[in-house]
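Hey, weird one. I pasted the Transporter sequence into the form twice and got a warning about non-standard characters only the second time. First submission, copied straight from the form history:
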Amino acid sequence: MKLSARNQIKGAISKIVKGATTSHVTIDIGGASVMASITNEAVEELGLTEGAAAFAVIKASDVMVAVE
């Protein structure tokens, strides 16, 4: 499968926390972590498991930075 999103970072799933309808999937990308909130159905359909290889695909129109 090909995607138009250019920000694709390969890593490994380090944690999956399932809620009532949404799961939080954490992907370790070389010592840093990225977390995605996706439906429980998506977790099942994709066959996600802890330790499996996965890509964090980031598509955002804005990135904000704040300091005190």
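That's the output from the first submission. The warning seems to come from a hidden character in my clipboard, not from the data itself. The chain has a mean pLDDT of 92.
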